Give the backbone structure.
Amino acid sequence: MEQLSAGKKLDQAFEKLGKEKSISFELDLDVDAKTLKLMDAESDPEPGEEIPEEAAELISGAKISVTVESKKAIDESEEKDFVGMAMKVSTSGGDLLDYRVVGDYTYVRSDVEALGKAMDTPMPPADELPPEAKGLKKVLAGEWVKFNTKEMEKAGQEMAEEMGEAPGATPSPEASLDPKTQKKLVEALREVIAREVDFKTAGGQDGTEHITATAPLRSLLTSLIGELRPLTKDLPPGMDLPSDKDLKDTPDTKVSADFTLKNGELTEVYVDLAKLAENAKVKKFGLALKMSGGTKPVAPAGATEMNLEELMGGFFGAMMADEGLEEGSEESFEGGAA
C-alpha cells in the first residue's frame, strides 16, 4: 500500500510540473574538493591529466540555475513553443557564466579569468589584444555580448561544410520524440519503477513529506533498457541502447533518491551517489535539485552584438599576438647576445 501511495504521489507531483509554462530549478553537486581529488586519483589519470586544485574547488562550490519558459504547458511543448531560457553557473565568489536565449538572440556573460585559472588555460589580458579583437575584449571584461541565434546556426552549418559535409546539405534533424513514443516511454518507466524501486514515506511539518526511493542500479538500468528495446524503431537516429553486456560492469549497489514534496508539489530531489564511488573514503557525494522561483529570461541591457567570425577572429588574433611577442623576445635575446 505504501509503494502504491508513494509512487502515485510522485506521479502526481511530476504531472503538476508538466502543466506549468515555466520551470526553474537549481542543481548542486554535494561534494568537497578533497573528495573530487580523491576520486580523480582513483581513476588513474595520465601524468599531467589530473584535475587541477582550482577546478576541484570550482566544481565543488558551483551551482547551476536554470529557467525555461514556454507558450504552452511544458509537457505539451515542442521546440518552437519555448520563448526563453536562462542558465547561470555561480560559486561563492560570484557568477561564472550567465547564458540566456530570448527572442532572436543568445546572450552570454562570463568570468573568463576565473574559468581560465580553474581549467589551467589563462587568457591574455584585454589590453594586450589586437585592435580587431574589440568584441573579445568585451568578453574578457565580463560584459554582456549577444549573437543572432539563427546566424550562429548558419555559421555552424558553414563550418560543418568546410569540415567535409556537402555544400548546402540539409542539416540533420534534431533528435526528438513524437508524443505517442513519449507516452510509451513514460509508461515503460512507470512499470520499471513500480517493479524495481522500493519506496518509504515520512511525514513532516507544514504539509512537507519525504519519499525515499531505493533500487540496485544495474538491476534498475537492465530492466529499464529491457522495457525500451521494443521501442527502438521509434527512437530518433543515434539513440542507441546499451546491451546487457555493456551494463555488466555497472555496479549493482543500491542508490537512493530522496524526494521532498510540499502540499503535493515537488520542491527538492537529492540523489546519494557516495556508494557508486566504491571507495570507503568517499563519505559524501550527492546531487541536489531544488525547484526555485528562478530568474525570468529577459534580454540584458547594453549587450554588444557579435558574430561568430568576429569572436573566432579575436581568439586567433590573440593567439597570433602571443606568438609574435614570444618570437620578438627570442630575437631580442639573440640580438643582445650577439
